Batch of 2 targets.
Target 1
Amino acid sequence: MTYALLSVLLLAAVGWAGGVVGNTSLLFAVIIPYAALAVFVLGFLFRAIGWSASPVPFCIPTTCGQQQSLPWIRQDRLGSPTSTPWVIGRMALEVLLFRSLWGNERVEIKGAGKLIFSPKRYLWLGGLLFHWSLAVILFRHLRFFTEPVLPGIAALQGLDGFFEIGVPVTYVSDVFILAAVTYLFARRALSPQMRVISLPADYFALFLIAAVLLSGVLMRHFFKTDVERVKEMAMGLVSFCPVVSAHPGAFFSIHLFLVSILVAYFPFSKLMHAAGVFLSPTRNLRNDSRMRRHVNPWDYPVKVHTYEEYEDEFREAMIEAGIPVEKK
Amino acid sequence: MAEDKLKQEELLNVSYEPAARDWAEPSVTFRKGTYCYGAPLKHQKYLGLPNQREWQPTDPDWKLPENWKEIILEGMETLLKRHRSFRLYLDICVRCGACADKCHYFIGSGDPRNMPVLRAELLRSVYRRYFTTAGRVFGRLAGARDLTEEVLKEWFYYFFQCSECRRCSVYCPYGIDTAEITMMARELLNLVGINIQWVVEPASNCFRTGNHLGIPPHAMKETLQFAVDELKDITGLTVDLPINKKGAEILFVAPSADFFASPHWFTLLGYLALFHEIGLDYTWSTYASEGGNFGLFHSTELAKRLNAKIYAEAKRLGVKWVLGGECGHMWRVLHQYMDTLNGPADFLEEPVSPITGTRFENARSTRMVHIAEFTADLIKHGALKLDPSRNDKVRITYHDSCNPARAMGLFEEPRFILRNVANHVYEMPENTIREKTFCCGSGAGLGADENLEMRLRGGYPRANAVRHVHERHGVNMVACMCAIDKASLTPLLEYWVPGVEVGGVHEFVGNALVMTGESRTTNLRGEPL
Ligand code: HEM
Ligand code: SF4
Ligand code: SF4
């Protein structure tokens, strides 16, 4: 955890330095973001294609509901889908609502051998708030990258800032995501079980995201940042004629640098679950393995014990016992 | 058995606070009662497995081949290329911990390495070290570990403390299936000759004689004949016993424990009574006398070698389709693997019930029907005369076996049957049935006697749920459709919930079935009605 924290702080410091030390704009505002994006796109494709190109030799969905069998038995089409639309439905609920996580419960043996089950939905809630806020925030960022600003964005921004607290307006998604990240971190750091299973990389991802969020929030609410300049730079980046000039502020520089790191780190980390979840064979296959033959592309012949070999060994005993044989 | 030496209070004193020790430091002690014996040389030889030698997990020297590390890493590379599940599940786990307390072995033991996420991490750490850049460069910091003999021992211990039940996979937001990781880990261990007696011996027996118990054909006929005689004593009727009969309409394949073990035996009587009463044109086979497949707990290759017999025999006998008996992992193979491994079964016909004319659309490619589907259809069509009061002695609860539950989705058929053949049927609590069902604690080859402590611990969540309905509804019978369950729930419940017995669904069908011309005074167990 310490290493993860230190490395994120170090990265933030580098980003800050990039903003205050002169003559680094080209590097920090242009080269690094482009490089990070390139790494992201190539890395993402490399990993995702690597996964999708690897074979799925067997049809192994985890069935979470009644199979399709006799016509009068009601099939659970979501838990045990036999057609592609229902598989898509199952996946959609997983991806959009974390359906499996919703079923989470704690199980433990407590005094006198009682097995206690208790629903444990905080992770589901925390996870959902985190991811949905992230999605909203990402979408809101498009206002910097599009001119004229894409239609839905202003509406979303309005909705997100619905409560109109503070100047500039505080976004609900910002509050949610900060709360969610704090929760995700707290459970990792405080629960003994979570502590054992956590790796430095798990903390690193959380710290890095938290740092991106904090730098973003700080620059919006506390440290003046020249939004015009940001937009100018962002448009420059997307139109491939980057504007090199002084940075719009130290926190912006930190923010941009950390985002670049996050984006470049993404494809090589567990964050790739975002792509992987779609490819998971226990979830994205139809439970139709007795209806349609699933082919294993690397199938090979194996040594079997044939009936002839079997009968050769047991023929006499079989004849004596009156069991029919092939060769008398 | 040494059960009485194991004190219940001690087993139940489970601490979920992991020791501060870093899990990455491999550490394993082979404590008596928590591991299985190594595979005997004779059976390694018969199957032609790698690195044949006498070996026990407690031996200080595991007699690994000199280049064992290379073998494992090359094996890993092959598996990564062959299975998307393997690579993906190694890559995308976010360590959210949702799966942690879903594993019955973790619940029962508190050993942090029995959390599915850490179980997988034992292998994932090695994957990182040799197959990812971050792992190669940053080592420990990136969660990577060197592959050492200690790590290998730890793999053995913990990947033979996973019953491949898939419960964790239900709860994981990405469906990461630790059973899948365990299967891969076992494939790797096999490459250097590490597997257990309870997997390799039945597999080798099955390869040679057609069934796990190693019953030769004449002995199998004898035992089936014995069942026929017993059924005559009970019902006064002599039922047919078709064996290796060419031209029969249906080949029937059951787990071989049904012919020998108890309480499986009563299920066998149930099948015989049912098939006789409906006049089914079927046959047993001595060559394909096992539906179960311990090869699955070893490697895909061995699973395929054993499974091949079923289609081969169906072809030789010229049957139209295949009917399968009550078994759990057997149905994992039949439902999810058989068509792929040994199909297409184009020499068979799409299964149609000869009694009701129902087409089993859901088995139209594999052409193998589960007996619960078959019987439920009979009952629905009123093809059976049933007297549920004959099961009034028992108050039943139904235990979903892991594989038919989470790798098939067979939930309603057995429940429908039970409701029709018995008057007192109760469900266990919702979080312990259907896709959330708990393992008996002895699946995937872990049912060995020497592994008793782990079985009692892992089986506790199931036993606890049984106790709940035992206390609340007076349940005294667990019905299930799995040979391993029947064998393992019996001692498990004797230990945790005395007074509750175990039986197969078709035992209760057999009891309730009113047969033409019968005269019965006892149930299939010989107890007065
Ligand atoms: C299709 C898109 C995605 C889906 C379905 C998804 C789903 C999930 C789920 C179910 C979890 C576990 C619950 C939790 O810990 O919150 C999770 C964790 C996480 N996700 Fe995502 N995610 C997606 C995209 C992303 C993206 C784009 C990012 C970041 C840039 C991200 C970052 C994280 C992080 C950091 C965690 C771990 C939280 C922790 O440490 O406990 N996810 N994700
Ligand atoms: S639930 Fe899935 S993602 Fe979460 S720790 Fe377990 S295996 Fe990893
Ligand atoms: S498959 Fe079952 S036994 Fe194995 S880790 Fe998952 S829950 Fe535990």
Target 2
Amino acid sequence: MSTTPATPQPKTNRIGLQILDYRGGKTTLCAGCGHNAISERITEAFYEMGIQPERVMKMSGIGCSSKSPAYFMSRSFSFNSVHGRMPSVATGALLANKTMRSIGISGDGDTASIGMGQFVHLLRRNIPMIYIIEDNGVYGLTKGQFSATADIGSKLKSGVINDLPAIDTCALAIQMGATFVGRSFSGDKKQLSAMLKAAIAHRGTVMLDVISPCVTFNDHEGSTKSYKFMQGHEEPVAEVGFVSHFEDIAVEYDHDTTVDVQLHDGSHLRLRKLHEDYDPTDKVRAMNLLMEAHAKDEVLTGVFYVDTQKPDFTSMLNMVDDPLATLAPERVRPGRDVLAQIMAEHS
Amino acid sequence: MGRKNGVANVIRAALEYNNSEARRWRVSVEMVQACRPQDRPPKRLLIKACGQNLPGFTDDTYPQTWKECIQPMTTPDLVVQDQPGLQPAGGIPQIVNDFSIQIATVNGSGSQSANNVLLRSIFRMGVPVSGKNLFPSNIAGLPTWYTIRVSKDGWVARKTDIDVLIAMNAETAQQDVQSMRPGAAVIYDQSLNLDQVRKDLTYYPVPFDQLAASTGADAKIRKLVKNMVYVGVAAQLLAIDMDWVEKTVRKQFAKKVKAAELNLKAVRAGFDYAASSLTKQDPFVVAPMSATQGKIIIEGNEATAMGAMFAGVTVVTWYPITPSSSVVEDLIDYMKEYRVEPDGKASFAIVQAEDELSAVGMVLGAGWAGARSMTATSGPGISLMAEFAGLGYYAEIPGVIFDVQRTGPSTGLPTRTCQGDLTFIAGLSHGDTKHVMLLPGSVKECFEFATEAFNIAEQMQTPIFVLSDLDLGMNNWMSEPFEYPEKPINRGKVLDAKQLKELGGFARYKDVDGDAIPYRTLPGTDHPAAAYFTRGSGHNEKAQYTERPDDYENNMLRLARKFETAKTLVPKPILEGKGRETIGIIAFGSSHWAVIESRDQLQRESKLGTDYLRIRAYPFTQEIHDFVAQHERVYVVEQNRDGQMLNLLKVDLDPTQVVKLRSVRHFNGLPIDARSITTVIAEQEGAAK
Ligand SMILES: Cc1ncc(C[n+]2csc(CCOP(=O)(O)OP(=O)(O)O)c2C)c(N)n1
Ligand code: SF4
Ligand SMILES: [Mg+2]
């Protein structure tokens, strides 16, 4: 008979870390802001996938959304850069150390206005990182001006109506070469979690546009990025299921209605079709679905496109296996003979 | 071209005319007219120099009003020494190894290799040379001039006078001939009939098309071959050693034997034609010396590229822009050759970015994650990099930015040189931002400073700007061979997991060592306390967000102290002269070569002794303050309109010292020449009286 009562072992993930090890600082965003919910989902996804936090770089631009890396995974390295320029900083960091994982948090203003130039080139290069747009249709941090993802006809609190078309960052991402493209909603816990875990399992640019209502400036009647609007208009294109490579469970699925995609780390994305024409491996169909949804005023969510074959940018550069950042001096400084030879060529 | 330096040229030409036995020089109306009115020399000075005989001058040339704005000048001291000259029996006096050749061609006509052969053949004869390319911002079809200066005394700065013209461009030929100094020689395509333009030059007509055709080259490449014909003609007329010409051609086309043979055929066709059909009538010849042994010829941008490779650069980003593109283009070649490992994998990444914002963003991302990263750009790119430059300074991220300066503002003259980015870069970005600048003055320093910039960047944890210019970067310069970097690679204060374990943690922005340089960690460091939050917003010692007044102020003060620490790391200025003269000269970068020649002119012509301090970095070190303190008047020589170096000095110097500063500025897009400096200093020192 034991005299010491058994203290319950704290729950840990597959690498022995607790959820606490993935927590960030206390949020300073508004209570109820969609961005906070996304931070929660990211924390859980990395915990559940058992990713060592020290192996992760958190990148961002400027905005309420771009502040959020401070609110998850404090043990990860973080770089809050300048407005709209996170893609270049993230690219540089990955060139220096391609063995790191990278997650970038941006806003719709940070991405679709000031940052458009760098954004499309990040997609085009298929930089191996997760790129999340916390999309609220406004510039939260500068107090609620329209962003370029605001839908035509949506209304600001002041009554101003947006009369310019929205940029569909998902359609753009598919066209520009991202290899994992989807849209979700900060309030859709199940879908967002599955998509984030699949994103972690993918290698290449994962572009997720996550509708993330701004409770302070864009959650009113007439907004198309409010909680209420999303509850009424979210239209999942498929049910997103995720089976990780380390979970030893064979899940039965119907091959006729479900698309199975094996991801780079061996995990599986199981997409149960909710739409007739859904085929996440076909760019044209994916684009059509998005266009049709626009016409019907639906906010299509789910994984629209996945390509697991296209090489990512760091592999295309054919770099040595070790991180460039820490190569030994003798590997990066050629010898005296090399200088002597070059000098002779110029004599 | 080149005639806008007015007073210097005309007076000198006049005086040379006066002093020369051979009376080769004449002052032409055109020369005076080409001067800006305020630069025109006084009539009586010209008369004094040339005697009463002022051919072609009318009262139109000397309007009353103009006369009135001239200060009376006498010039007992301003005597230009003429070459002693060899005097072959019955011939004209020779001018040996002291003249310049200008080759006028059309952009895109492939004259570069021919010019290179000329330059290097003379160099290999042991004679000091420099080569400057004056090219348009255009791919093909616009005029280009390449100037080779041959100087037994080793002067390599631009010289405004041209002695030998090779006129290959029909469009500019008339004008080119007009701009020659009297007595100059002109080698030209005979169909241009240039000998009708002026009577005071020596003409050598050459049937270039015919000679090019005689090589058997097919029509497509005849245009290129034609260039080699002028090499042969010039070699014969100027006594350039054909052995060296041949060796140089073979070396240049080492990988293309057939091309080498064809080009040599063209050279010989030119040589033979000149030998049989032309009679040497000008004084300019090359004679072997031994002043270039062991030296190399290289462009500054290539030297920069080499320096970066030997620095161990690993991440390179760029967005093409003249005149910096060849830094990265040459680097790509070198890295492919010397930095690919036996398994075929690269120990580097080179990325052509979508713009300069992105190029510098990648540099900072890579520097943050631990790579030695760099980008190369020019003025417009620097403007775009401003916001990131401030982030790099404030978040304390290493990176190296090479600025090969060209003229501004805006697009300016993209293919002309300038030192005009100095004050902009010194404080590039908003807020209280300050940057370290390295200012190489030679191709050798382009190499050395490139290597050192990466050490300083990582030691200081800040972006380092290395400012060269088009003249230094894209022209051919002689140099001592570069020395292998003896200093080990210094990665600065980086804590690894083991150190963190011993320390238990660290504060990213804390001044632990008293030098204001904090410690950092690299992403991936395997310790729970390794990570920190990098941001361009307010942060405290622990890299936490803060808006507290004292946190902000303390951090800014530490950054200011860190800038003081930079003074211990940057290259010190170099003093030339004994330091006992009353007159000092301060210059930097490519102006150096004109300054040293000007000091010689000032000494010889006006008995003006000078001390010279060449600044090689910003922030300014104590030596610079001392130099100004030790002199009564200090001339700051630079290639921009606003006296940017002078302004930076004004900010730093004690007000009692600032009054000593005088400004010598040159900013017409052409490299500065010695005479422009000499004229201003001599005049201000009263030596011109
Ligand atoms: C160069 C520059 N211009 C303007 C700003 C001001 N600014 C800060 S955040 C922001 C918009 C952010 O909008 P978004 O990316 O949608 O983020 P949200 O706050 O909505 O999450 C703007 C315009 C800035 N920081 N930098
Ligand atoms: S202003 Fe809007 S976007 Fe910013 S924190 Fe508040 S709710 Fe979120
Ligand atoms: Mg927004």
